[in-house]
Amino acid sequence: MDVSPGLRERKKERTRLRIHRAALRLVVEHGLDAVTVEEIAAGAEVSRRTFSNYFAGKEDACLYGDAAHMDDFLATLRARPAHESAWTALRATARTVHAARDLSPDREWVQTTRLALKHPALLGRRLAGRQGFLRETTALLGGRTLPAGMHRPGLLASVFLSALLHGLHEWTEEGTGPLDEVVEAALDEVGAAFTDPAPPP
Amino acid sequence: MDVSPGLRERKKERTRLRIHRAALRLVVEHGLDAVTVEEIAAGAEVSRRTFSNYFAGKEDACLYGDAAHMDDFLATLRARPAHESAWTALRATARTVHAARDLSPDREWVQTTRLALKHPALLGRRLAGRQGFLRETTALLGGRTLPAGMHRPGLLASVFLSALLHGLHEWTEEGTGPLDEVVEAALDEVGAAFTDPAPPP
DNA sequence: CGCAAATATGCCTTACAGGCAATTTTTCAG
DNA sequence: CTGAAAAATTGCCTGTAAGGCATATTTGCG
Questions:
Q1: Taking the C1' atom of D20, which residue's CA lies nearest?
Q2: Which of A116, B57, B95, B148 could disulfide-link A123, Cβ–Cβ 3.0 to 4.6 Å?
Q3: How far is the CA of A111 from the C1' of D5 (A)?
Q4: In this complex, do A166 and B152 lie within 8 Å of one another by their Cβ atoms?
C-alpha cells in the first residue's frame, strides 16, 4: 500500500481530476454559460453535491490545471540553487517548467488560457489565483540578489509574472510560432533591463 | 437644462453612483458575503430589479469607482503630447491622475483596494476589468517610441500596470508613508530600466 | 472482522441573474 | 400645453448556484 501521499488522498485527487476534466471538456465544447454544474457532475460521475465538496464553482473546476501549473513553478523555483540572482532563478524556472510541460499533454494550459480570454468570469478567477502565487514567489526570492536599483522583490516578481502572462496571451491570440518562443521572447525583452551585472549604460 | 451629457443620462449616472455608494458602504461595514443585493438596492432606494439593470452583481457595484478611475487615466493619457515616449507618457499620466485624485475625496480608491485584497471575488473582478484597460492603454501607446530593446507596446503597458498595482498593494498592506510616494517609487524602480533610448541633451 | 474517520450523497434554504411585461417617468414634436 | 414615443423602473417568475445539515457509504486500521 502506498503511504507516500496516502491511499485515500490519491483517490480524492483522482476524483478532483475527473471533475476538472469533465468541466474543461464541456465548457470548451458548449461555452461556460451553457454548462451547468449538474452536467459537469454527471460527466464526472459524481453527485451534484460532491462537486461542491471539491470546487466552489465551475470556474474553479476549469482552472484547476492552472493551479497545478503554478505549484509546479513554485516547486521548481524552490529547488533553484541559492546563489542564483532573483531574475536568473525566475528565468530558469520558467524555462524548466515550460520544457517539462510542453512535452507532456499540456495542450490544456493553452485551452484554459483561450477559455479565460473568452470568459471574463474565468479570467477573473484565474488572475485572483495568481495573487497568492505572487506572494509565494516573492517569499522565495528572499535572499537572492536583485537587479541594480531594485529593492522590492515583490515588484520584480510582479513584473516577471506580467511579462510571462503577456507572452502567453499574445501567443494565444495571435498564434505566431511556437508558444515557448513567444513567452521566452517577452521575458527576454523585459529581462534585458533586469540583467544582473548592470543594465547597459 | 443641461444638454451637455443629456439630462436623462445625468440622472442615470446619479442613480448608478447612489447604488455604488450604498454597496461600498454596506460591504465595508458588514463584509461582502454578509450583504445581499436586496439590501444594497434598499440602501440606494431602488428596487432589487433596478439594481440588476445597472450592475451585474454586488462586486461590480463595489468596483464602479475603480472603473471611473481607469477611464480618467485613459482620458489623461490620450491627452499627452504625441512626441512623448511611451514610458514618459505613462509616467506623466500616473502623476497627473494621482495628483488630481488625491485632493478629491478619493479615499475611496484605497477603500476599494483594501476590500479587494480581502475578498477574492472582488479582486478577481477588479483584475479582469483591468484586462480591457490594458488593451486600451496599449492602443494609445501606438506611435510612441519604446525603450531600447522593446518591441511590444502591450508588454510595456503590462509591466507598467503591474508596477502601479504593486505600489498600491504595498501601500495598502503596509501603509508606509504617503500613497503617492510608494507608487511613484515603485514606478521609478522599474522605470530606471526603461528610460527612453533618446540620447541625453 | 468491526469500529472510527473520512467521504459521498440527498434534501433543503437562501441568493442571484436576467427574461418578460406592465407601469411610470422623461423627452420632444406639434 | 398636450399627447405620443422612448426610456427607465418595477414586479413577477424561472433556472441556476452555494452550501448547511443529516444520512449513507466507503476506507483505513487495530
A1: A49
A2: A116
A3: 48
A4: yes
Per-residue pLDDT tens over the stretch A130-163: 999 999 999 999 999 999 889 999 999 999 999 9
- Count how many Cα atoms sit within 13 Å of the Cα of residue B24 in the half-sphere of its side chain: 20
Sole residue written with cell 514610458:
B87
End-to-end Cα spacing for chain A? 61
Describe chain A by its helix, strand, coil percentages, rounded to 5.
75, 0, 25
Residue from the list A152, A186, A194 with its beta carbon closest to the beta carbon of B152: A186
* Cα distances (angstroms) measured from residue B74 to each of B67, B81, B100, B187: 11, 14, 14, 18
* Residue nearest the C1' of D11 (CA based): B49
Q: Residue B62 corresponds to which cell in the numbers above?
A: 463595489
CB-CB contact of A115 with A62 (8 Å): yes
pLDDT, tens digit, for every residue of B49-108?
999 999 999 999 999 999 989 999 999 999 999 999 999 999 999 999 988 876 665 678
Which of residues 42 to 71 on A have a Cβ less than 7 angstroms from any strand D atom?
Answer: 49, 52, 56-58
Rounded to whole angstroms, how far apart are CA atoms A155 and A163? 12
Per the document, the length of chain B is 201
Asked if residue B118 keeps its beta carbon closer than 7 A to nucleic acid strand C, the reply is no
Please, which residues have CB within 8 angstroms of residue B186's CB and are 6 or more apart in sequence? A152, A155, B163, B164, B166, B167, B170
Q: Are A108 and A24 in contact (CB under 8 A)?
A: yes
Cell of A165: 502572462
Name the pTM for this structure: 0.91
DSSP-derived secondary structure for A64-127: HHHHHHHHHHHHHHHHS-TTS-HHHHHHHHHHHHHHHHHHTTTHHHHHHHHHHHH-HHHHHHHH
